[in-house]
Design brief:
The complex is a heterodimer. By secondary structure, chain A is an alpha/beta fold. Helices cover 43% and strands 23% of the residues of chain A. The chains are: A alpha/beta, B mainly alpha. Bound molecules: adenosine-5'-diphosphate (ADP) and magnesium ion. Magnesium ion binds at residues 45-46, 177-178 of chain A.
């Protein structure tokens, strides 16, 4: 099976300073699969998600690479066409349910408007669809919730709404950017189960961004480990947990206590492992800079 | 916790009612001045000069707040003065808001080149001392109502631009903006439909503040005789005249001063009150 989303050798820098944020990232995601994107905070996980969805901050510039969605390169597409393609085939489940719904608008239109405005649905169809989806994410009174403002709802409730909204247009790809990080531990489990359930039912390919290997093991078929904007390893879930190939992956796994010793405390990644990765990155940067300076 | 919120809400409500009530009164007086003013504000009559306000000995009915040394009725002049004060407040406030908020919104949301140009312009603009700037402008444009309004707009748009830019930048970083863009909405639509409603409470507070400032600026320019060249009464002009007669007839100074003070205070309090009430995050 060929990949539905394929990121090839993607590099991004900060405009002006030239600081490298993504270092030749390559990730493949098969249709209907969930790929975890794991790394510590600041590694560039969100940046990859944003690059795929075409919402990188203006200060960040992609300098090389390809992002193939179903074989078409998003980076070499007229912006208008790309926007329409993304709007029709992809969606985002954002990190923070508190800021992911617009506080000035009612919840209903925030789900239905894009179906009507962008995808040309009728208002009635969109409303019916939104109700059905809210039902699917186990929201008790969809009609009442759709008339509410976000601040009238709890964090868990809002995250359910965001999940419903993401699946509303039946996208083929969803980027979920730490969708459970901002929630209470108890709510976290429910939301994670809900996302897994929705993903399985709709067969949507998903790029699941998280810093938590525990979460990855519950929902993903394979994963990519990111360190300082560089993918150090992409592997199938089972292979990864049996035998992580890269020393940094091994350290990360060892640092997540439930897989080694459930009673042990979280261990930091060891110094010499970090030195190895940093050396790899320095070598990579040198090579890249020479490439830039050359032809 | 519910009690705490209720308490804040009730106090905000009282503030809103008091400031709104006073401004409604001033607006009513300004609009209907020719009908509600007891006297002709320009009519001089030396037989009625320096009449005290109604509760003092020697007061005459029909001259409730007394008269100045030319015998003109203070209340009638305050009511007519409200017209110029409010014309300046509304037109200068609206124009300043429109220009400043639009530029701020564009700079804060679109960032990039637009932001660089607008922010640099604001920085350069703010390097001029405002009072000097105002007097210079009046000198070039000549005195008159339009000049005052233009001067206020030219000087104060930067306040809107700065504050609205910062707020738009905050909102632009929110995940709901990212979602709108992923959905395929244009940047312009995102700015107007997603960002603007959330910046509106701030714009409203700035607008009322600006109206208060406009009233003060108009009064100051009238005070130094740089405002309108006609005989039409202005609060600033009344304060200037009243200052000269402070020992014989304090009421000629005090009543316009109090009116000015309450009006400016009400504008700023109205803004804060409205922001508290309509800010969707605080609500
Ligand atoms: N607007 C920006 N301009 C420049 N650098 C940024 C910007 N946003 C994020 N960064 C940097 O990009 C790196 C990756 O950020 P991000 O993708 O958000 O990390 P995470 O893996 O935690 O999601 C960080 O080092 C961050 O400092
Ligand atoms: Mg992130």
């Amino acid at each position: 099976m060929s990949a539905y989303l394929e990121i090839r050798n993607l590099s991004a820098v900060v405009r002006g300073t030239g600081e490298r944020l993504l270092r030749g990232v390559s990730i493949a995601l098969e249709a209907g699969h969930v790929t975890g994107l794991v790394g510590e905070s600041g590694a560039g996980k969100s940046m990859i998600g944003k690059a795929v969805l075409g919402i990188l901050p203006t200060a960040v510039e992609v300098v090389e690479g390809e992002i193939l969605l179903d074989g078409q390169d998003l980076l070499r597409m007229p912006p208008d066409r790309r926007r329409r393609l993304i709007g029709a085939t992809a969606a985002l489940i954002p990190q923070d349910p508190l800021t992911a719904l617009n506080p000035s608008h009612r919840v209903g239109p925030q789900i239905t408007d894009r179906l009507v405005d962008i995808l040309g649905w009728s208002r009635a169809d969109a409303e019916a669809r939104a109700q059905a989806l809210l039902d699917e994410v186990h929201i008790a009174e969809p009609a009442r919730v759709m008339k509410s403002y976000p601040h009238e709802l709890s964090g868990g409730m809002r995250q359910r709404i965001l999940i419903a909204a993401a699946f509303a247009a039946e996208p083929r790809l969803i980027v979920a950017d730490e969708p459970t990080t901002a929630l209470d531990v108890t709510v976290q489990k429910q939301i994670l189960r809900l996302i897994a359930e929705m993903q399985a039912r709709h067969g949507t390919a998903m790029l699941f961004v998280t810093h938590d290997l525990g979460v990855v093991s519950k929902i993903c078929q394979d994963l990519a480990v990111l360190y300082a904007g560089k993918v150090v390893e992409q592997a199938a879930m089972r292979d990864f947990f049996r035998a992580p190939a890269h020393p940094y992956s091994r350290a990360l796994l060892a640092a997540t206590p439930q897989y080694t010793d459930p009673t042990g405390s979280l261990r930091p990644v060891e110094r010499d492992v970090l030195d190895t990765v940093e050396a790899e990155i320095a070598a990579d940067d040198r090579e890249w800079r020479n490439g830039q300076a050359g032809p | 916790m519910r009690d705490g919120r209720g308490q804040i809400r009730r106090r905000a409500g009282l503030r809103l009612w008091l400031s709104g009530g006073w401004l409604a009164l001033v607006l009513f007086g300004a609009v209907f001045a020719p009908w509600v003013a007891p006297q002709d504000p320009l009519m001089q009559d030396l037989f009625t000069s320096r009449l005290p306000p109604f509760w003092m000995e020697g007061a005459e009915p029909g001259y409730w707040l007394g008269t100045d040394n030319l015998g003109r009725d203070v209340l009638s002049r305050i009511l007519h003065g409200a017209r110029i004060a409010l014309i300046v407040a509304v037109s200068a406030g609206a124009a300043t808001c429109l220009i400043g908020a639009t530029l701020g919104l564009i700079a804060g949301y679109f960032r990039g080149m637009a932001d660089i140009v607008i922010s640099r312009l604001v920085d350069i603009w703010m390097a001029f001392p405002p009072v000097l700037f105002a007097i210079l402008l009046i000198a070039v444009l000549g005195t008159g109502l339009t000049s005052i309004i233009v001067a206020i707009v030219v000087i104060d748009w930067t306040r809107f631009a700065r504050v609205v830019r910062a707020e738009a930048m905050n909102q632009g970083a929110m995940d709901y903006v990212a979602s709108a863009q992923v959905a395929g909405y244009s940047r312009l639509r995102t700015m107007l439909v997603e960002i603007l409603p959330n910046v509106l409470p701030t714009i409203g507070a700035l607008l009322t503040l600006e109206m208060g400032i406009s009233v003060i600026v108009e009064a100051i320019l009238s005070f130094v005789n740089l405002s309108i060249p006609t005989d039409d009464p202005t609060w600033g002009g009344m304060i200037a005249e009243g200052r000269q007669a402070i020992h014989q007839s304090w009421w000629v100074l005090v009543f316009p001063l109090v009116t000015l003070f309450l009006t400016v205070l009400s504008f700023s309090q109205l803004g804060e009150g409205l922001k508290d009430r309509f800010d969707p995050v605080l609500r």
